Amino acid sequence: MTTFSVLALLLFLAMWAVGGKQGAIAFVSLGVNFALLFLTIVLVQFHLPPLPVTLVAGTIILAVTIFFGNDDDNSTTTAFYASVIVMLLLLLFIVPVEHWAQVAGFGDEDSEDLEGMSLYIGISFLKVEICTVVLSTLGAIAEAAMAISSGLSEIEMQQPTITGKRLFGDGLNVGKQIIGTTFNTLFFGFFGGFLSLFIWFVGLRYSIGEVFNDKVFVAELLMVLLSFIGVLITVPMTAAVASWRWHRQSQQSQKKPIVTKVDADE
Amino acid sequence: MNVKPKHSANWWVTLVCVLFGGLLVLGVAYDAPIYQRPIAKITNVRNERPVKQQDEFENQDATVHQRINAVLINTIHKGQKITLSNTYSRSGAMDQPYRVGNQVFISKLTRGQQSNIKGPKRDTVVALLTWIVISLLFIFMRSAGFMALLSVGLNAVLFFLAINIDLSLKNGNVFVIFSLISVAFAALTLWLVLGWSRQTVITLTATLSGTALAILISLIVFALTHERGMHYEGLQYVTTLPRPLFLAETLIGSLGAVMDESTDIVATLFELQAERPDVSRNQLFLSGRNVGRSIMGPLINVLFLIFVADTFPLTLLYLKNGNNWGYTYMMNMSMGVIQSLISGLGIVLAIPVASFVASRLMKKKVMTDDNL
């Protein structure tokens, strides 16, 4: 057996043992997300426009990450709406930033990997870079949206008379509690992957000026910063979506007092 | 209502900080004089007719040659007018078009020879985005934002120190060094987020044991499977032994996520115990597991998307160069996937570990409370 298959099997068993059925479904979500990522690349390879492909794939990835392995309908729906809106908003940031920064494609440090390859492939690496950034931030956005919406749905259950406005404020408060650890998840997640690049820089004595203008480094740093921005927008956005849905629900139940909460949801 | 004046004063401080930061960004846009390398600002660009390119894999592309006029904006030659040239392709894998107003680094001026463009100046966009992140942090998160920023900043400094230590030890093992540094990373971060309390110690214990357990299991799997199907040649930017480097990358990569999760679990259990002091150890353990299992899926996906999406451009290039899916996956994505699996193990194993450690160590305190 290969190392991959043994590790995958162990991860599945561990997730199943700890999370039961919910854990097993969460494991499946990893596989589905991988298939979606690979499919995106294949579709881009066949010259489909990268951005629309990524947005469709991104929406499905968000749905898979949020709905697989979570049972609470109310909080998952809120998190999904909020994270799709954040993805679109973040795109408005990413497109101009990537155009301006000119970090698409490969840098001098990649030369060895590119030896003997044809670089003129006829697909804009700028667009590919934009897709890469969008996809790499989705996990963090989904996770933050879930953390806030499940916190808020807990509050909704405990205080059924709470106003939408108060709920929004509570959402920001939950955001304050998670922001420190979320930033660290992203920081370590990204910087762990680029440890070798940093060893390269320090080993070859790049100056600070060289590092902060280096294509590969700036590309990576922008990814981290854009993920931070994504998470930061996610907090008020999820709070806003939750408070809007709560407001609408309470209005509907006022008009038709017999309607149960579940019906009002639809 | 007494709070209100203080509140608006806080807003003023935030506003002043944000505006001051904006000025700093503007400063970076005009910081060319502090660079030793010559920088030129492009004043005029003439594009020549596109030239069609076709490679052996029948990829269609086009290249455009640009004739560029520019003026030097730093060094002793400041103000001198120069001509430059550039060729860019439509795909732009290692080249890019330049436009009027771009600032570019150029090679040293030598008499009678044209300078080459080394690359665009990118520090302004970094400064701008950093400023946006910090501003948003202060506006939405107030003091919590400051702590988040501080922990990321201090970790970045530690990270840099660790790399320096690693390089100064000629025969040091990257993995061993970064394992030790990870303890410092985790302790520092949790201390900043939670303060110094029993809760911090429990969270730290859970984080370190969960991560260590995942790495240990992976090492055993590596040994048993003889690392079949692991392609270290697929790793990028490798200048030292690839195996310890890979392990160190995986360790650092998962540390933040495991900390995130342990913090959530332990915090919830402390809250639960405060509300219901009579809760049993067993119940605490089960509640911890409940908290953990709803967050583990999204957390593993966070790392998975970071590790795998990053390989997107190179994967595309491999496919476009006539490689089949299997070889392309093996060379580009397989190591990222294995990294995600190991991190995933860390994230999952931290759940029972955190629940167990918390339920045991917390109860001790309660018993002494009961005795009082």
From TrEMBL, chain A:
<feature type="transmembrane region" description="Helical">
    <location>
        <begin position="50"/>
        <end position="68"/>
    </location>
</feature>
<feature type="transmembrane region" description="Helical">
    <location>
        <begin position="183"/>
        <end position="202"/>
    </location>
</feature>
<feature type="transmembrane region" description="Helical">
    <location>
        <begin position="80"/>
        <end position="97"/>
    </location>
</feature>
<dbReference type="InterPro" id="IPR012507">
    <property type="entry name" value="YibE_F"/>
</dbReference>
<keyword id="KW-0472">Membrane</keyword>
<keyword id="KW-0812">Transmembrane</keyword>
<dbReference type="InterPro" id="IPR014564">
    <property type="entry name" value="UCP031503_TM"/>
</dbReference>
<protein>
    <submittedName>
        <fullName>YibE F-like protein</fullName>
    </submittedName>
</protein>
<dbReference type="Pfam" id="PF07907">
    <property type="entry name" value="YibE_F"/>
</dbReference>
<feature type="transmembrane region" description="Helical">
    <location>
        <begin position="117"/>
        <end position="142"/>
    </location>
</feature>
<keyword id="KW-1133">Transmembrane helix</keyword>
<feature type="transmembrane region" description="Helical">
    <location>
        <begin position="222"/>
        <end position="246"/>
    </location>
</feature>
From TrEMBL, chain B:
<feature type="transmembrane region" description="Helical">
    <location>
        <begin position="174"/>
        <end position="194"/>
    </location>
</feature>
<keyword id="KW-0472">Membrane</keyword>
<feature type="transmembrane region" description="Helical">
    <location>
        <begin position="147"/>
        <end position="167"/>
    </location>
</feature>
<protein>
    <submittedName>
        <fullName>Multitransmembrane protein</fullName>
    </submittedName>
</protein>
<feature type="transmembrane region" description="Helical">
    <location>
        <begin position="12"/>
        <end position="32"/>
    </location>
</feature>
<keyword id="KW-0812">Transmembrane</keyword>
<dbReference type="Pfam" id="PF07907">
    <property type="entry name" value="YibE_F"/>
</dbReference>
<dbReference type="InterPro" id="IPR012507">
    <property type="entry name" value="YibE_F"/>
</dbReference>
<feature type="transmembrane region" description="Helical">
    <location>
        <begin position="200"/>
        <end position="224"/>
    </location>
</feature>
<feature type="transmembrane region" description="Helical">
    <location>
        <begin position="124"/>
        <end position="141"/>
    </location>
</feature>
<feature type="transmembrane region" description="Helical">
    <location>
        <begin position="338"/>
        <end position="358"/>
    </location>
</feature>
<feature type="transmembrane region" description="Helical">
    <location>
        <begin position="299"/>
        <end position="318"/>
    </location>
</feature>
<keyword id="KW-1133">Transmembrane helix</keyword>
